[in-house]
């Protein structure tokens, strides 16, 4: 390859600053999944599920990467094959020429100032975190082999449809539906898929539903912190350049999140008489989610209003409606429906109200703004977009799971459900005795002195314990 081929830093279309920004933001988004949600899940679940829940996230990230470059990227951002789907095929980055070439989105006639390799990596971390979020609803009972099959299938038959329709130049994009950074494509999709999938898989053991205390709150908080700051890449990277709109998106993201966290905490104090750190984390998540569809489109005061709404409406959904008999029939382990589906739809609708003309122009959106600019039709478009995403997931997700169930069991056996990580993976999260172990290696624990009593002996109540 010669310098005249144009694949070098002096290439006219290449902006090295924008390229650096996109690679950086992509890495921030990737960190939200590994290690962010891995350690968040590992800390917030009962300790016998710490390894399994983290491993579901770890595997999903890897499986999506391979599926993405082999066929799913083109279905999401390639040549239009149907109004809601791109033509399947291997992404051009599998060849060095394609990887070095300019990134384009053909269905929307968009040319970008960085290579295809950057575009493929930036988009795959969004696809991966969507599957990782779904895992939060299925943990504590799903067969890991079934999860291994589910991940590439759901990516192929659900994620690509929503992604192409809204981001890849499909019919919702052409209508003017706004989804700045994934409130619909990622969060509403994950939340609706999580809820419908949890219904198919069935609930955890009743004893796990009754007693599912977090095993490590500081670890959970570490994951939450990575999520919060990682969201700067999530929303800051979607203008596809390091311009002013990216700065607005980052600031609005943090303002809305802070407002949501504080509102959720106040709601906890009013209703439960004390603030909860777990509740504050839920409010943080709903704030991040609600601002995502409009991060660079709304004014700062609109971001605060959206944060207040996400700290109260999903709170009511989770703590009032979620405790009703109908909702309790579906075991959504970590409340993904409330924190992502409810908050994602809320954010999309509020974007239809608070989107500004200036924000839409900066983002090169088809829309001229939302209700505050006099364009109340945008709210209707946002509703259509949200209903489409919900419909895709409540249909596709159960079909996939029922199909997988014919091949492998969707659920772990009752014995494995009692034991947890040690049965699923032969590994335990911590190097001390815990509930869920089938047996205790008394010779090892006694030699280390970890279980010895004052007389230097293993207490009889420990000797008698199993599982």
Describe the sheet with the most strands: 2 strands, antiparallel
> What's the CATH topology label of the largest domain?
Ammonium transporter fold
Looking at this structure, what is the CATH superfamily of the largest domain? Ammonium transporter AmtB like domains
Q: Which CATH C-level class of the largest domain is it?
A: Mainly Alpha
* Unreliable runs: 1-6, 440-467
By DSSP, the count of extended strands is 4
Q: Quickly give the CATH architecture of the largest domain.
A: Orthogonal Bundle
How many independent structural domains?
Answer: 2
Helix and strand content put the structural class at mainly alpha
**3D shape:** globular
- Percent of residues in helices: 55-70%
Run of helices and strands? HHEEHEEHHHHHHHHHHHHHHHHH
Q: State the end-to-end distance.
A: 63 Å
How much β-strand is present in the residues? under 5%
What is the alpha-carbon Rg in Å?
23 Å
With helices defined by DSSP (H or I, 4 residues minimum), what is the helix count? 20
Strand order of the largest sheet: 1-2
Describe the protein in words:
The chain has 467 residues and is mainly α. The chain folds into 2 domains: 14-405, Ammonium transporter fold (Orthogonal Bundle), CATH 1.10.3430; 437-467, no CATH class. It has helices at 16-44, 50-77, 96-100, 116-138, 144-166, 171-175, 183-201, 206-210, 217-236, 244-272, 277-291, 300-319, 325-328, 336-354, 357-362, 377-405, 414-419, 421-425, 442-448, 460-463; strands at residues 80-82, 85-86, 102-105, 110-115. A two-stranded antiparallel sheet has the order 1-2. A two-stranded antiparallel ribbon has the order 3-4. The model is unreliable at 1-6 and 440-467 (pLDDT under 50).
């Amino acid at each position: 390859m010669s310098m005249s081929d144009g694949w070098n830093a002096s290439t006219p279309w290449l902006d090295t600053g924008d390229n650096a920004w996109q690679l950086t933001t992509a890495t921030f988004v990737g960190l939200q999944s590994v290690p962010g949600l891995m350690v968040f899940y590992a800390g917030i679940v009962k300790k016998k599920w710490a390894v399994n829940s983290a491993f579901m996230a770890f595997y999903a990230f890897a499986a999506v990467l391979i599926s993405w470059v082999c066929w799913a990227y083109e279905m999401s951002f390639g040549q239009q094959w149907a109004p809601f789907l791109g033509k399947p095929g291997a992404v051009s980055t599998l060849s060095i020429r394609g990887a070095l070439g300019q990134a384009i989105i053909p269905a929307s006639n968009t040319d970008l100032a960085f290579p295809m390799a950057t575009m493929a990596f930036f988009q795959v971390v969004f696809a991966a975190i969507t599957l990782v979020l779904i895992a939060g609803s299925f943990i504590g009972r799903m067969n890991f082999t079934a999860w291994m099959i589910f991940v590439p299938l759901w990516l192929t038959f659900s994620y690509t449809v929503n992604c192409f329709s809204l981001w890849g130049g499909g019919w919702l994009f052409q209508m003017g539906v706004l989804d700045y950074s994934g409130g619909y494509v990622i969060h509403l999709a994950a939340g609706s898929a999580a809820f419908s999938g949890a219904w198919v898989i069935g609930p955890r053991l009743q004893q796990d539903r009754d007693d599912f205390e977090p095993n490590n709150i500081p670890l959970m908080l570490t994951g939450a912190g990575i999520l919060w700051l990682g969201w700067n890449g999530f929303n800051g990277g979607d203008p596809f350049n390091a311009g002013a709109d990216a700065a607005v998106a980052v600031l609005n993201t943090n303002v809305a999140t802070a407002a949501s966290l504080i509102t959720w905490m106040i709601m906890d104090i009013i209703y439960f008489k004390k603030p909860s750190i777990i509740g504050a984390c839920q409010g943080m998540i709903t704030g991040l989610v609600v601002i995502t569809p409009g991060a660079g489109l709304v004014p700062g005061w609109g971001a605060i209003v959206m944060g207040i709404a996400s700290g109260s409406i999903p709170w009511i959904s989770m703590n009032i409606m979620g405790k009703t008999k109908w909702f309790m029939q579906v075991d959504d382990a970590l409340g993904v429906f409330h924190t992502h589906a409810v908050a994602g739809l809320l954010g999309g609708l509020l974007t239809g109200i608070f989107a500004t003309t200036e924000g839409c122009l900066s983002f090169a959106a088809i829309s001229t703004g939302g209700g505050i600019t006099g364009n109340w039709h945008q709210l209707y478009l946002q509703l259509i977009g949200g209903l489409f995403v919900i419909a895709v997931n409540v249909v596709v997700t159960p079909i996939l799971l029922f199909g997988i169930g014919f091949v492998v069991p969707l659920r772990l056996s009752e014995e494995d459900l009692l034991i947890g990580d040690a049965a699923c993976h032969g590994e335990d999260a911590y190097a001390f005795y815990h509930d869920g172990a089938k047996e205790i290696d008394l010779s090892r624990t006694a030699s280390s002195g970890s279980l010895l009593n004052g007389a230097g002996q293993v207490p009889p109540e420990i000797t008698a314990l199993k599982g």
